[in-house]
Amino acid sequence: MSVPTDFQAKLDVDDGTATVWLSGELDSRSAAVLDELVTRAVEQRVRRIVLLAGELTYLSSAGLRCLVFAHQKLGRTGDIVLVGARPEVAETIRLTGFDRAIVMQSRAEP
Fold first, then answer.
1. Is it the case that residue 4 has pLDDT exceeding 60?
2. Contact assessment for residue 47 and residue 16, using Cβ atoms and an 8 Å cutoff
3. What is the 3-state secondary structure (H, E, C) of the chain?
4. pTM (2 decimals)?
5. Which residue ranges does the record assign to the STAS domain (predicted)?
6. Domains and CATH numbers, the chain
7. Is the C-alpha dihedral spanning 3, 12, 69, 101 positive or negative?
8. Cα–Cα distance between 103 and 106 in angstroms, integer?
9. Is the pLDDT of residue 1 over 60?
10. Structure confidence by residue, pLDDT tens digits, 28-86
């Protein structure tokens, strides 16, 4: 199995929840892609953004900034849920304390 190095993201909005599938490396070159998807989701007045991160192989400070901006755009009444983050990605989030602002799950819950 080869590990993807190129970033890919896909957005689906359904019933107030935006689901974003992430794969590859979320860094300074790819953060704008996620930012655009989050902006589109917020424009549709979602209450929750679920980031499926099982295939996300790397998260740089620029990628983390993008998640922080997503949290700000969603507002206080919205939730960001990060699902299935690899240990190295989850550790980056925990080291910054951002895990206290979002919900981190090992797998999707109903």
1. no
2. yes
3. CCCCCCCEEEEEEECCEEEEEEEEEECCCCHHHHHHHHHHHHHCCCCEEEEEEEEEEEECHHHHHHHHHHHHHHCCCCEEEEECCCHHHHHHHHHHCHHHCCEEECCCCC
4. 0.89
5. 7-110
6. 8-105 (3.30.750.24)
7. negative
8. 10
9. no
10. 999 999 999 999 999 999 999 999 999 999 999 999 999 999 999 998 888 999 999 99
The total number of residues shown for the chain amounts to: 110
Which amino acid belongs to residue 38? V
Task: Give the amino acid at 29.
Answer: R
Residue whose tokens read 């206290």: 100
Distances in Å between the Cα of 7 and the Cα atoms of 40, 83, 100 are 18, 17, 26
Q: Identify any residues that bridge with 83 across adjacent strands, giving them in sequence order.
A: 52, 105
